[in-house]
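Backbone description:
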Amino acid sequence: QVQLVESGGGLVQTGNSLRLSCAASGRTFSTYIMAWFRQAPGKEREFVAYISRSGDRTFYADSVKGRFTISRDNAKNTVYVQMNSLKPEDTAVYYCAAKKVLQYEVLTTTRYQYDYWGQGTQVTVSL
């Protein structure tokens, strides 16, 4: 089992940047695929970015491609998302999610496939 704690959210102006972090407990972090999701008021939680166990593969939602970068540091049990050129439509609560994968690894973008979630961190982008 893994516990996830996000940090780094806040209020920024359009065009600025933020980096979110997600710290994981436990000693087997490298066996988890990780992802970031977000949920705006009145909307469904949506996929933002995915990263493989080793970090060699990433995948992004079209809405953030080219602006967001997901990365991980397995030695620090942490996954990050660097968010540049932020827009008001990026305003949401951002969640990190984890899924343990012991064998064949596949791209996973559906929220129901992730087993562990953090409590979320608010990102607000003002005009």
